[in-house]
């Protein structure tokens, strides 16, 4: 993409309405525009990151054997009357009447709808296990929408639902979700710690939240700081192997890590003092096992291998897709702007032409552009007639992890400069070597 032809409405001034750095930087980098309290348009740069995050979420869900579908945003109130939640949900639910005076609602979550799909089409234990998920907009009429996309009213969520024959099978689905979530967050360059949590209005016994440590987080968290060192890394996990999957979960949930809702002071005291930490975290996901809470009242049953009709065991599992943009920025920025991890960056690399209109510099930039694009690394090329300082400031603000700087002086020696946004370190090399280096870097993230 050539910047001169792109739509990147960056702001020079700090927007006064933004209280936290991620909200400020998303506005300044021209990623979002607020349209009403807690409701945003996704401008092209923000949209690119949102799509990258969605893509990673999809890939890791499919890898775990989960099946994507798409349910509507609007739901019939009657479904929610069946589960009893239409009255329970309260003011967070946006209720709508259509022209025939029928009650609809903008879905805050989809347990009822997925249970309805299941009961209409599945009747035998032979069709289990089954996990269906979608990535769809939700609406919750939050009392205090704030912090930009972090606590919106309309927000994008991945929500998945498992259907299993009994509790053991459903707990394997729970564990499978935990592992797939750990992989998902790691690919985004995040450390998200599973913490035992409270189940709230979804209901159920077993639940973990995934928290990204950040001072601006809304949850108070208590943890053994050795938990922050745990990594899945590139290890392959066989999602069909119950023991292996459970083993990974044990590894990640044995050290103490809880939110204030489930905090146990006595247990916390047992952590060696040097490792005992109190901090704040951003909830980027949550998994639940809730058994037959919905399947029983809504009649989602299957015939088991003894010929008996039994309600299925279920769980639901959510990732805050749009909130993740804020969480990633909170975890990865400096005073110049955003620093995107390679896994989610809107463009893998920026090209800065120090002397637009200079024949040699323009030709070198064009050929770099073509070479990178051929490798699947579409660059953002700053081809505007601007001072070098302004071009660097824009690149730093929008946070592309790598920058190639091209100028007449370097070209005389046959080199360009490759700069890391994270470390600020630059290295001179031939344009071909810069492309090869980037191909190598991104091979690990695609
Ligand atoms: P919270 O406690 O932050 O209100 P929740 O526990 O009600 O969230 P869940 O029902 O668990 O949310 O939804 C799954 C995920 O969706 C959450 O982990 C969070 O990342 C995201 N999410 C929830 N509410 C919002 C919101 N208002 N804006 C953006 N993302 C949200
Ligand atoms: Mg939650």
Molecular structure report:
The chain is of the alpha+beta class. The protein folds into two domains: 336 residues, BirA Bifunctional Protein, domain 2, CATH 3.30.930.10; 95 residues, Anticodon-binding domain (Rossmann fold). Helix content is 33%, strand content 27%. It contains 14 helices and 23 strands. The strands form six sheets. Strands 3, 7, 8, 9, 10, 11, 12, 13 and 16 form a nine-stranded mixed β-sheet that branches. A five-stranded mixed β-sheet has the order 20-19-21-22-23, sandwiched between helices. Strand 17 and strand 18 form a beta hairpin. It is globular and about 80 Å long. It starts with 20 loop residues before the first helix and ends with a helix. The mean pLDDT is 96. The chain binds adenosine-5'-triphosphate and magnesium ion (MG). Magnesium ion binds next to strand 13.
Q: Give me the CATH fold name of the largest domain.
A: BirA Bifunctional Protein, domain 2
Distance between the termini: 20 Å
> Going by CATH, what is the homologous superfamily of the largest domain?
Bira Bifunctional Protein, Domain 2
Helices and strands: which structural class? alpha+beta
CATH architecture of the largest domain: 2-Layer Sandwich
* Overall number of strands: 23
Cofactors, ions, other ligands: adenosine-5'-triphosphate, magnesium ion
User: Which class of the largest domain in CATH terms?
Assistant: Alpha Beta
Count the DSSP helices.
14
Q: How many structural domains? A: 2
| Quaternary state of the chains | single chain
Mean pLDDT: 96
Shape call: globular
Residues in helix, %:
25-40%
The Rg value, from CA coordinates, equals 24 Å
Strand content: 25-35%
Mind describing the biggest β-sheet?
A: 9 strands, mixed
The stretches of 5 or more residues where confidence is low (pLDDT under 50) are none
